Amino acid sequence: MFKPASPSSDSNPNAQGAVLFKTAVRLRNRASSNATEGVPWIWVCAGALVTILLLITALFGVILSQGLSALWPHAVIKMQNDSTLVIGIPMRQEEGTDPNTNTRQNRRLIYQANRDFGVNEFAFVATEAVAGAERPDDIWFVERSEWGPFLGKILLLNADGTSVSLEKQKLTQMLEDGAQRRKQIHKLEKGKLADLNLDLEELRLEKKKIERMLELGRITDVEAADNNKLLEERFQSLTTEHRKLSEQVQQLRSADEAIKLTLAAENGQTKELAASQILRAFQPNALSTFEKLSLFIARLWGFVSEEPREANTEGGVFPALFGTVAMTIIMTLFVLPIGVMTAVYMREIAKQGMLVSLVRIAVNNLAGVPSIVYGVFGVGFFCYTVGASIDQLLFQEKLPNPTFGTGGILWASLTLALLTVPVVIVSTEEALSAVPRSLREASYGCGATRMQTLWNIVLPKALPGVMTGLILAMARAVGEVAPLLMTGVVKLAPALPVDGHFPFVHLERSFMHLGFHIYDLGFQSRSTELSRPMVFASTSLLVAVVLSLNFIAIKIRSQLRKRFEGRGAF
Amino acid sequence: MLNPNDLPPTYVHPESLSGPAQISIQNFNLWYGKAQALHSINFPILQHHITSFIGPSGCGKSTLLRSINRLNDLIDNVTVDGDIRVGERSVYERHLDVTSLRKRIGMVFQKSNPFPMSIYENVCYPLRISGITQRSTLDEAVESSLRSAALWDEVKDRLKRSALDLSGGQQQRLCIARAIAGNPEVLLMDEPCSALDPISTAKIEELILEMKGRFTVVIVTHSMSQASRVSDHTAFFYLGRLIEAGPTKRLFENAHTKATQDYISGRFG
Q1: Whole-angstrom Cα distance, residue A497 to residue A493?
Q2: DSSP tally for chain B: helices H, then strands E
Q3: Segment A98-118, tens digit of pLDDT
Q4: Which chain B residues are closer than 8 Å to A2 by Cβ?
Q5: Given an 8 Å threshold on Cβ–Cβ distance, is A441 in contact with B191?
Q6: Which candidate, A501, A512, A522, A484, places its Cα nearest to that of A379?
Q7: Which domains does chain B show, CATH number per domain?
Q8: Which pTM was predicted?
Q9: From the list A1, A444, A563, which residue is nearest B71 (CB)?
Q10: What is the pLDDT of residues A212-248, one digit of tens each?
Q11: Last residue of a domain, one of A92, A117, A134
Q12: Domain that includes residue A82, residue range
C-alpha cells in the first residue's frame, strides 16, 4: 500500500469511472418516467424526515409549554356551580360524565387550592360555565411555606384577636419584612448553626477515636487524658456558642411569629399565620401583562434557585439541578481519561489481532447492557465493597453509620462513568483511526518516538472526535435514572455535595437528581394532578440542562476543530 | 514491455561510483508479505549530490526511499535482506535507535502534511522532540529553515497562525523547512511536486538546487524533465530492480541499457 502509485490503483479508478459514466448516460437516456429516477423514494424519505421533525417539535413544544405554564400567574375565576361556590384556577379540559344529568359533557378542572380550609382541591365545571365566570380583582393567590397555595383574602390580625382588612401597600411592606426575617433565620440555621453541628459531630468522632486508640494501646492513658481535655475545652466553647446561637434564633423566631396575618377563604373559614410564612402573594386578576411577566420571571428564577418545599411538590429544584450537573461533571472527570487511555491502548499500542478484536466487541456490547445492571453492580461493588473498605480504613469512628459505604455522588458518578465509558472508547477509537497516516509518517520522519507522535500529533488531531464521544456520554448520563436509584440518589438531600464546610466537596453525600425528581413528583407524590405542572417544569429544566451541557461541549469541540483543522476546513 | 525474466543486469556508470558515498545500498531485498518489492539493489548515493529515482509506478523507488529512513517499519509484514548504510552506520543494525537515525534524515512527502499547529511549531517540531526548549535556538532554527525553504518572507508576520491556512505550494515548502530544521545529513523527497502547480513546482525545484552541497538529496519523481533539471545522478528502476544508475546527463542522452533508453524516450512506462 506504500508503493506510491501501483499500476492497479492507477488504472482501476479510471476504469470504474468510465463504467459509472456510461451507466449514468444509459440511465438518463432511459429515464422517461419519474419512477425510474426514484422520485417516489425521495418523497418517502423526505416524509420520514418531516415526521421525525414534527414529533420532536411536538415533544419539546408540549414539555416547554406545559412547564412554563406552571409558572405563569393564571387568572382566578369565581362562580356558583349548582349549590357550591367555586373559586379557583381553570386547568385542563376533558370530556366526562356529569354525575347529575348522566350525560357526556366538556368540563374543566378547577384548582381550588385551600387544602386546609375544608375545600376540595379540585372541582369540575362545565366548560361553557367557565367562560361566563366572574373574575374578581380582590382575590389573593398566596404561596405559603406550608399547606400549599391559598386563594382568598388576607387580613391583619390585631392583638385583641380581631381581623381587619389592610391596604395593599402595607401588606406588601409586611411581607417584605417577613421575608427579611425568614432569610435571617434561615441563614443562621443553615449556615452557622449547621456548621457548629458538624463541628460538634467531628469532636464526638475524635473522642471516639481516642477511646479506640487507647483500647488498642497506641496511646497511653496520659496522652488520652490530655487529648480528651483539649477536646473537652473545645467542646465547651462550641456548645456555648451553639447555645447562644440557638437562643438568638429562638428570639428571632418568637419575634417573627408575633407579627400575624389572617387568611380568610370565601367559604368563611379563617386561619392565622405568621407574616413570614407567606412566601409570595399577588392578586392574579388585577395584574397587568407586564406585572404578570415579571412575576413569571421571578417564579422561574425561584424555581431554579430555591429549595423544594412540601415534599418537593412546591418551591424550586435547585438541589436537584445542582446534583445533576455536579454528578455529570464528576462523571466526566472519570470517564474522559479512562476512556481515552483505553482507546489509545487498543488502537495505537496493542498489536491488532484476535484478542483486541474480542475486547473491542466486548466493549461495544457493554454499551448495550441495561442500565439497571450497572446500578446493581455499582451498589454491590462501589458502595458495599469499595466504600465499606474505605469506611473500615478511614472512617471507623463513624461506624456503624456508613460514610462511603452507602450510596453517594461519587459512587453514582463512577457507576455512570462505567455505563458511558464504551461510548467514549468507541468514538475515541474512531477518531484515532481517522487521523491521516501522512501526519503520523511526517512525525516519525522527523525522528519522533511513538509516544511523542501520539501525544503531539495524533491525540490533538483526534480531540474533536473524543469530544463527540464525551457529548454522547454526557447526554446519556444526564438522562439516566435507574442506576442512580441504587447508588445515591435521594428524594430530599439534607445538604448539597459542595458547600462551605471543609473539605468543601463531599463526595460521600447522597444527592438529588432531576431525573429522579421527575419520577418522584410524577408517581410518588400526594396528588398526581397537583404535581403535574412541577413534573413538566422539571422536565423542561432537565431538557435545558442536557441541551446546555451539550452546547458547551459542542462549542469547545468547534474551538478545537478550528485550532487543529485550520480555518475554513471541514 | 519487458518481462521480469529477461531484464538486463544492473548497470552502474563508473562516474556514480567515484566520490564519497553518503548512502550505500548493498544487495538490498524487500518483501511485503510474500511479494518481493525490491530485488538485490546495489549502488551508492554520493554525498552532497542530488540523486533522482525514476521509473514507472510500482517499480519500488518509493519503497527504497522509505527503506533508507526505515519508515517501512510502520507497515506490518515487511521483511528485508541486505543492508543500507547511511554514513558509516548500517540502517538495519540490530540495536539501532531508529529515532536518532530519522533525525539525521529529513523527509518530504508526496502530499504536503503540515501538522495541525502553527507555522512556527511545525518548523521547530524536530527540535522540540529532541528536547530543545531554548527560545533563541528555536527562533533561529525556524528563521533559517524558513529562509532556506524560501518561505520566510511570506510567513514571517504570521508564524503563530495555523499552518493549514497556507496554500498547497507554501505547505510543501513548509514541510521542506520542517525536514531541514533538524539539520539532517540527508534529505529524502518522495515526489514532492506531484500535487503542485507548475509555478510551485518551479519554486521547489529551485530550492532543491540550492540545497545541493548542503545536504545529500534523494528525490523520487515521475517527471522525467524534473529529474533532468534538478539531479546530478539518476537511478532507473523497473519491476523492483535497479536497471541503470549514472550521471543524469549520460542516462538521458546516452543510456547504456535499452530499457532505460526506451523509458526515458517514452516508448514504454
Answers
A1: 9
A2: 10, 11
A3: 777 788 888 888 888 888 888
A4: 62-63, 66, 72, 75
A5: no
A6: A484
A7: 1-104+186-269 (3.40.50.300), 113-183 (no CATH)
A8: 0.80
A9: A444
A10: 888 888 878 888 888 888 888 888 888 998 899 899 8
A11: A134
A12: 77-134
